[in-house]
Structures are given as C-alpha cells and as structure tokens.
TrEMBL record, chains A, B:
A GO MF term: orotidine-5'-phosphate decarboxylase activity
Coiled-coil region(s): none
InterPro entries for this protein: Aldolase_TIM, OMPdeCOase_dom, RibuloseP-bd_barrel
Protein name as it appears in the record: Orotidine 5'-phosphate decarboxylase
Native source species: Tetragenococcus halophilus
A Gene Ontology BP annotation from the UniProt entry: 'de novo' pyrimidine nucleobase biosynthetic process
PANTHER family: 3-KETO-L-GULONATE-6-PHOSPHATE DECARBOXYLASE SGBH-RELATED
Length: 207, 207
C-alpha cells in the first residue's frame, strides 16, 4: 500500500520545503487544491518541482474542460492529476484519455459521487478511485467500513485510494484490511511539527 | 436580465484587456476557472482588477474547503464566487455563509447536480443558481426548456443563471421567457474578433 501525503493551505515556499523533505519518505506527495488555486499551474510549471523518489500529485479537481485542464496540468512535473467524479462523464473520459496518452496517472475524486455514476466509469480501468470524505462535512467517516463497502459494490475496480481525516490507527487497519492501494493523509503529516517524523511513523504502521 | 461574459483559456494579460474593454458594456464579467487555475488567486489579488461599472465573478468552482477558498477568493476584487452544487452540503453552506458575511454574491454551479440535492440548498435564498451544461458534454442542451423545467421544479428559487453554448437567438428566447435572471455567454463574446461589438449585440437582443 502506498502512502500519499497532502500539503495544503501553506505558502508555495513552505509547500516546496515540505515536499522536498518528504521526497523518498512517502510514496506520493500531493500539492492540494489550495496550492493550485492560490498559485496557479503556470507558477507550478515554472517552479519545475522535481522529486527524486516520490511521485507528485496535483489535486486539480477538474469539474469541466477536462482536456484543457489535464493538458495544462501535465505541462508541470506532475505524475498524477485529479478529476471530480461528480463532473460530466465526458469530462472524466477526456481527462482519462489525456492521462493515458501522457503515460501518467489519474485519480477520480469520488466526493459525493453516487454508485450509478461510478459504474459509468468502468472504461477507466487504470484510474485510481479516490474515496473521499469532504473536509467540510460534519458527518463522521469510517474509512475501513467505507473501503469494504466500496470494494463489494465495485469488484472490478483495482486501485482504491482513501482520504478523510485518517490517523495512524485507521491507517494500520486499512493496511491490514488489504483492499485500498493508497491512503491519503493530510494535516497529520504535512501539518505536524515534524512532517518527516510523522511520515515515517505512518509508513511504519502500514508496512 | 443580466448578461455575464466569461473569459477563459487566454493569458492573464489578454483576460485583463478583454475585461476592461467589456467593463460597463455587460453586467458581469467572469474570469473563468482556467484563469484561476492557470494563474492563481494570489496573482489575481495582486493584480487588483477594478471594474468601474460591471461586477467581477471569479469561477472558483469550489468542491471542498469552502470557507478557506471563499475567504481567499474574496480577498481579490471579486463580487461573486462560485461553488459546485455537487460538493457536500456543508461546503455549500460554508461558502454561502462567507459570501453573506462579506455582503457579496455566490453562484452555485449545478453541473450534474440532481433535484434532491438542489432541494437541500433551500437555505441559500440569496444564492444565484447556475444551470450549467458541461462544455465537455456531447449531449445537446435546450436552454429555454431547461430553464422552464427548473423553475417549475424549484418554484422558490429566485435567481437563475443559465450557461452552455448560448447564442443570440437562444439569448433572445431566454429574455422573452422572463424566468432566468442572468445569461452567461463564453466564447461567443470573449472569443469573438471584436468582443465589445459581440457584447453589444447580445445586450441588444436581451433588452
């Protein structure tokens, strides 16, 4: 199982600093939507962030104009971009096609996406499907149960990422469960006083 | 009825040039999602775009972290920001609260949003509800019929914007229909060889 550390709501300088510190410690380093919307893809392209041993994910959260956004996104050094499961199926298929053509990865963010819609994405065989509990939602989220239910409903989906306030205890249980292929951790790594130490602790419990 | 002209997929310099040219000619000038994701809110804040006679809408398309994104968005000179109808209801309520507290406007983008979800937004009485046909969708869109159906299903919604490949003929019909409060026109104004002339022609048919 891979560990993805998401960096959000900090200055671009701070985001870069944390990203380079975590390079090679976690599998995937995410620059969150806040970094993209605050600083923009043109700036991220100019910064040319090169990770040696981790993949770079930009949480682009595309809702429309799929081809344009993904082509722009892959002009940066990103290995993985994200599209919203709630966008039109044509948007999802466009972004999937761009990512496949570029030999890059795509994560479909399933915030508030219903099962019928997910079934329509069955052509996107190589996509990572992201079970994602909104940061804003007041409802609680049982990641382990959600992953089990999702896998049962969608047995053909191979790559499952899970995000939403995951702590070390939950991470351990998700790893033991053996279904999800990636867990995504936000503030509990990037927001820790020592992100490297926090990342290593998460890596320990999931290995 | 108001006319909103959306500017997309051009350089920031070009976007600003078109925005200042259209100031006072159309009611609302939109800087589209492509401008925000390409250049970022920090840059837009620094540019401090001041329109004399039109409102400025930034098509932020918030999916999550509603409070953060809207507070950041209103640090720019924007009068109106957008949130996705497909995001969690808590996200929509957060963004609505921020916009009301700032005495600014919010447009809820209803791409792929079902009626049950729209009914949950009934607290957002002052929001503009945006009927929006995805640019990527292969299905055709009858704007006049869509507006009529929407108003019938949601009789308490007062402010309705409509977007999706609208030309002058459709704009005229929507104006005559008298339900929608805003029509949003993209490439047919901002992408015209003479955006000012195109905007004036649209204003003529809707007045």
């Amino acid at each position: 199982m891979k560990l993805q550390a998401a960096i959000d709501r900090v200055s671009l300088e701070e985001a870069k600093k944390i990203a380079y510190e975590l390079d090679g410690i976690v599998d995937i380093i995410e620059l969150g939507t806040s970094i993209i919307k605050d600083y923009g893809l043109e700036t991220l392209k100019a910064q040319n962030i090169k990770l040696e041993n981790s993949e770079l994910l930009l949480d682009l959260k595309t809702n429309d104009e799929g081809k344009y956004e993904f082509e722009k996104g892959f002009e940066t050094s990103a290995d993985i971009l994200t599209v919203m499961g709630g966008s039109a199926i044509d948007t999802i298929e466009q972004t999937y096609a761009v990512s496949q053509a570029a030999n890059k990865d795509i994560l479909i963010d399933l915030i508030e996406t219903n099962d019928d819609k997910i079934d329509k994405m069955s052509n996107c065989k190589n996509a990572i499907f992201g079970l994602h509990h909104s940061k804003d939602s007041a409802e609680s989220f049982d990641a382990v149960a959600s992953v089990a239910q999702f896998a049962q409903k969608h047995p053909n989906i191979q790559r499952i990422a899970v995000a939403g306030g995951i702590d070390k205890e939950q991470a351990k249980k998700i790893a033991q469960q053996g279904i999800a292929t990636t867990i995504i951790v936000g503030g509990k790594i990037a927001g820790a006083s020592d992100p490297v130490k926090a990342a290593k602790e998460f890596m320990e419990v999931i290995r």
